[in-house]
Amino acid sequence: MTMKCIHVLRLSCVAGATFLIGASACRSLPARANLSGQQVALIRADSEVFEAVVRAQLAGNMKDYPYHLDGLRYDSRPSIPVAAFPITALRSKKPRATGPFEAPDSMMMDRLAMNREQILKRTGVEQGGPLRYPDCAGVLVPPPPPPVGSSPSTSTPRPDLHASCPRHSESYVTVSLPIRGEPEALKRFPNPKGRRANLTGEVWTVVVEENTAGPSGSMWSQHAWIFTHLPSSHRLELADTNLLGVIE
């Protein structure tokens, strides 16, 4: 895909993460049989944060982020937070956990994905895989220049870089496993409005990646969403978002 990089703070991914401890149970929590206390806490935490992301996305508009997305579908499989965030050691190395949970194994990841599928069904959002439009150029990519030495009367039409893009807008979203607290790396960057949020109560962070494609081209973006959980309201609220990278 031919794309123009506008601003990228892309960070590599790893195979482990520090996970938050959920504050309340989720209705789609699987049966507790054969699960440890940490596994149950991870399921609750992931469910609560994932549902908060989905509902905030559905309530979005075209003025402020999170924006409204057409043709919305989510991947129920949890992604892994970027490397600048707190992590646990890779399983191939000596364990060096930095948080309350070890990186979940494949069975636990499958259980988390099934739980997310139930949330998507309950909220009426489609579950699916990534977009497949490799030849759909970015929305800001200009058409190629005419051949050297050609004249307007003899030059052939320049190719349409968006000809293979879908006729209707489609959006594909992935959500990482949740992280407890605000990673130090985020504190160095203000949000798009140039201010710092006043975070109180329990703080949770999740990485949301959005891929969109439509008649005018494609776009990729990655944000960190920061939630707070106030004991007084017993609700999870979106406190801030930070842009990690965008390709248009």
What share of the residues does DSSP label as strand, in percent? 15-25%
Mean of pLDDT? 74
Task: Please count the beta strands (DSSP E, at least 2 residues each).
Answer: 8
Characterize the largest beta sheet: strand count, sense, and whether it forms a barrel: 8 strands, mixed
User: Cα-atom Rg, whole angstroms?
Assistant: 20 Å
Number of helices: 2
- Cα(first) to Cα(last) distance is 11 Å
Shape designation: elongated
N-to-C series of helices and strands: EHEHEEEEEE
Oligomer state of the chains in this structure: single chain
Number of domains: 1
State the share of residues found in helices, binned by percent: 10-25%
**Structural class of the helices, strands and pairings?**
alpha+beta
Poorly predicted ranges? 1-32, 87-100
Q: What can you see in these coordinates?
A:
This protein is α+β, with helices and mostly antiparallel strands. The protein has one domain (5-28, 35-140, 160-247). Helix content is 16%, strand content 23%. Strands 1, 2, 3, 4, 5, 6, 7 and 8 form an 8-stranded mixed β-sheet that branches. β7 (217-230) and β8 (235-247) form a beta hairpin. The termini are close together. The model is unreliable at 1-32 and 87-100 (pLDDT under 50).
What is the structure about, briefly put?
This protein has helices spanning 37-58, 106-123; strands at residues 5-8, 72-74, 126-127, 170-175, 179-180, 202-214, 217-230, 235-247. The chain is α+β, with helices and mostly antiparallel strands and 248 residues long. The chain has one domain (5-28, 35-140, 160-247).
